[in-house]
Structures are given as C-alpha cells and as structure tokens.
Amino acid sequence: MLSDGIISLRALEPIDVDTLYHWENDPGLWSAGVTLAPYSQKQLWDYVNNYDGDIFSAKQLRLMIDLHPDCDNPDSRVTIGTLDLFDFDAANSRCGVGILIAAPYQRQGYGLRALELTSRYCREVYSLHQLHSIVSADNTASRGLFEKAGYSISGRLRSWLRLANRYTDAYFYQKFLQ
C-alpha cells in the first residue's frame, strides 16, 4: 500500500463496486473521461472481479484513494477518489495518468498528494521516465492540480474533446521523473 500518512493508494477491491457505480454513472463527470453511457452494477462487478492489476500485461492500473484511517478505528477508511494509470508503455518508459477526487474532498490537497505518491511509485517501482495527461482547456481546477504536481504543458490539442454539443481544446501535460 502506498501512503503518505494522510492518504493511501490501494488496489481495487470488490467493496469498491458501489463507489465506482456512483462515480461512473454521474453524467457531470463524463466530460473528464471517456464515458458516454452509464454502467450497470453487474458490469462493474465483472470489471472488479476480473481486474488484472499487472500493469505490464493489462497496460493499466486503477488505484483507489483513501483517507488514512483513524489509528483507533481501522474501519474508518473513507474512499475519496480513484487514480488511473493507462497506456503503460514499458518500451518508452511512460504512462498516462487520470485522477478523480469526489466533490466533498476536492480543493483540500488530496489530489496533489495522490499525484505525488503516484510519481514516486512510478519512478521507484516501474522506473518510468515520464507521466502524461490530457486535460480540457476549460478544466482550470484540474490544470492547476497537474501544474502544482510538477506537470508542464507540452502541447495544445485543438478541438480535442467534445463537451455536449461543442468541442474544446485540451492541453497535453508531461512530468519527467528521471
């Protein structure tokens, strides 16, 4: 388990199905990802139970973000978000990063902590050279988060994302780890 004493990043577990169901079926979050339709609980149950956490074979890794439990009550764990590593490319030593922090926990530094833990993990465990993310030009909060985490804009993708009935530009962010 990856932890900084405030948050922990952990593997996906069957207990996460209900949380994922809530997040994956929130149309307000669809513009930040690639989802265009709701998922059933069975689809998510199958996903979690057949999940391959080996980034080398699956080319992706989903981690759940938890607030560190109270020492006196280990059951006090609260899942506040999820972090995805995707498009893992061992040959070129890079990987994409996506992050979701649930609304009640946003703007409290948890996203930054998760990105910092992920950078350290990817550098130390996978010896990655870089991480990258594509962020909508309209998503100033996410852009600010990635910039605080040490990512830099390396390009602008014109008319890259469709949001409802319009297209918006996106920025390609990179962070070099080594």
UniProtKB/TrEMBL annotation:
Signal sequence interval, chain numbering: none
PROSITE patterns the UniProt entry points to: GNAT (PS51186)
Keyword Transit peptide: no
Domain of life of the organism encoding this protein: Bacteria
Keywords: Transferase
Domain annotation N-acetyltransferase: ranges: 7-178
Gene Ontology MF term list: acyltransferase activity, transferring groups other than amino-acyl groups
Protein name: N-acetyltransferase
Organism whose genome encodes this protein: Duncaniella dubosii
